[in-house]
Amino acid sequence: MAIRGEFSSRIGFILAASGSAVGLGNIWGFPAQVASNGGAAFVLMYLILAFVLAYPVLMAEFLIGRSTKSNVVDALGTVAKGGVGRLVGMWGIATVSLILAFYGIVGGWMLAYAFEALASLFGLEDVAQWLVSSSLSRNILFCALFMLLTVGIVSGGVVKGIERWSVRLMPTLFAIMLLLFGYVMTQDGAMDGLKVYLLPDFSQVLNPNLLVSAMGQAFFSMSLGVGTMLIYGSYVSHNENLPKLGAAVSLIDIGVAVLAGLLIIPAMYVALHNGVQIFGENGKLLAEDTLIFAVLPSLFDTMGLVGIFVALAFFLLMSIASLTSSISMLEVPVSYVVEKRNVTRQKAVWIIAAIIFSLSVLIIINFNTLFGFVITLTTRYSQPLLGLMLCIFAGWVWRRNDILQELKKGDEHAEQSLFWRIWPWYVKFVCPLVIVFMFYRSL
Fold first, then answer.
1. Where do transmembrane segments lie in this chain (predicted)?
2. Are the C-beta atoms of residues 101 and 90 closer than 8 Å to each other?
3. Treating both helix axes as pointing N-terminal to C-terminal, what angle do 418-425 and 400-408 enclose, rounded to 10 degrees?
4. Domains of the chain (ranges plus CATH)?
5. Quick check: pTM over 0.85?
6. Which of 89, 241, 264, 304 holds its CA 20 to 30 A away from the CA of 393?
7. Which residues share a beta bridge with 279?
């Protein structure tokens, strides 16, 4: 039996878990959602829902993980005695593997665009052009490169791989974001974007579509439901106060999303000021891939030489955000194979990464058919349903006394805490109802 890893420090765990939560969902998804859902009204509802819905589910994952100290299949099998828990665990592994299959492609694009800025800097125009044109060879090559970086980190294990790199990558991510924000705010047009981002139109706040989008964003940006947080929770020492750790992770995750919006929405209005089109035919701000791969590069082009450095910093930022999430996703199936099949970590990492990369290649070859389909299947349908199952396990199946004993290991006065007064009934009644409503609306 392989010895299980454990995070060596509190900050290591917080940065690794928030790194898992901070991904393209925050830096690409969040500003795009803000852009297409009425600006500040969306920001306001997202902030509320992140604490009202995402934090309680995050805590369910952390608690189940630390209590069982095992991979996602065994953990859910322990909590929900019988086959149902194990089945949900396998479903989580399948979902996270599919998410990583499309995530690897997008992570590869981010790397390609970062390399494009370097190629432009050295005057290699043909190379630069190839790096930003969507070809089969470029997509497969950079997806492979992205997966190799992920493999390199995960094969180091919990302390020497995940923790060591999270502690380096997360502060770098913050530094680049703050520098870019500072630069963008000196440009003409930035203040118009800031107003759109910070001044809510209160008539939009209770718009059902906006609420569903904000709820979905809160859920996905914390990478809930697929076992990544459960696995990280299983590597936490029993002496730690879990509700406090969970709050720190949530705050960092929300902070990065809000900072990303502060950077990207003003940048779009700077682009508008520089003559770049930022509104679609329907009068809405352009979002998602158009925003990242068309609007922002056009903006960087209008900045001259400085634009190349800004582009390099921006796509480096996107690559780091992708990587801190992909390492946690790969860890979910790896921990299962290492613990259940008694395979060495190195071997498990390579085998699983090869399988997921094959799925990525399959998606790249049938891009128009599969890419959008896999994203919708995993993030819109599978993730909320897995979140619902976690709430049912934590709220209805797992014995309350067992949960309390787990909390008391890190805080002997857990029984008197505000968390214990609210969380058990909240995760039992409120979260499942809200998730079911959101799921029904999304259909």
1. 12-31, 43-64, 91-115, 139-159, 171-190, 210-233, 245-271, 291-317, 349-375, 381-398, 418-440
2. no
3. 150
4. 10-442 (1.10.4160.10)
5. yes
6. 241
7. 285
Place of tokens 């609007």: 295
